[in-house]
Amino acid sequence: MTPRARRRAVWRPIRDPEYQFFDQLPPPSAMLDEVIAGLTEQPKRIAPKFFYDERGSRLFEAITRLPEYYLTRTEMGLFDACLPEVHDRIGEGGCLVEYGAGSSVKIRRLLEELLPAAYLPVDISRRHLEQSAQALHADYPNLSVYPMCADMTAPFELPEVVAGLDKLGFYPGSSIGNFEPGEARAFLRQVAATLGAGGHLLIGVDRKKDIDVLEAAYNDSAGVTAEFNLNILRHLNSALATEFDPAGFRHRAHYNEGSGCVQMFLESVKDQSSRVDGRIIEFTQGELVHTENSYKYGYEQFAELAAGGGFKVEASWSDADDFFTLFLLRAG
Ligand SMILES: C[S@@+](CC[C@H](N)C(=O)[O-])C[C@H]1O[C@@H](n2cnc3c(N)ncnc32)[C@H](O)[C@@H]1O
To answer: How many domains does the chain have?
Structure first.
């Protein structure tokens, strides 16, 4: 993007602002294969991307407003210090690519402070993506909006329409923590290739901290995280006609100190079986199905991970308690 001082007088949208929806989501048969593969492993697992149908996306938004869930408010509390500096470093008029866009609360701050020409939210939750992208298109008439429905854990192409624009990636919420560290490096390498050499990535990272604070964030007293966790079964039932009984499972989350990650599971409350596309999957009482990891990082530990993913740390912003850090990375 062109730096602010030179850009202010001359910047114009590169074309009339437009809205175009891109769909690169794999077919339901691929989703089914992945679910069956995970449920026939020992221990059983279901990937966290399957939390997100429209209800799952709304439940996640409710989580971000919970008193125990410090992540969202701490990350957004860093924006006042971070965004003006990001603006000065990268300038205006480029393309802002948001990975795992979800709700558009955070992105509105970025759009207003960074003034990109185009916004390209990538998300697996089609209806939620479409609704929030259309709302942004209505609210920001100078902005081209190009929502892309895709599974970002697999390689995907940015559309030709943003080819000529400098790219700033935005990956908030410490969603990078959902990957195993090796997968996170591979994902970052893929992001670096998509953004191109010199492209930037603003990424939110949850830091290691007191276990009680971490565990409370994933075991809220209102039970919203439990409902979110169980929604993975409801989503599979409606998308793939599986026959899980959500009442037969309960939410479990704890911090695994050895691996530095909060792990979420669904625990089977009884011996039971569920039909998945003609197969019968058996669960024993007390059996845990792994649904999510949320890795927490030390500062240097994350900088090393980023380097392995093809990025250099250009700047960072942390809160006074070092609960959360926003890193501005540059693809080398
Ligand atoms: C934890 S939420 C974060 C939402 C928001 N960015 C924030 O920081 O609050 C994760 C988001 O990523 C999306 N998502 C999860 N896995 C995905 C995948 N494999 N590909 C694309 N989007 C994914 C979900 O639909 C959801 O909107």
So the answer is: 2
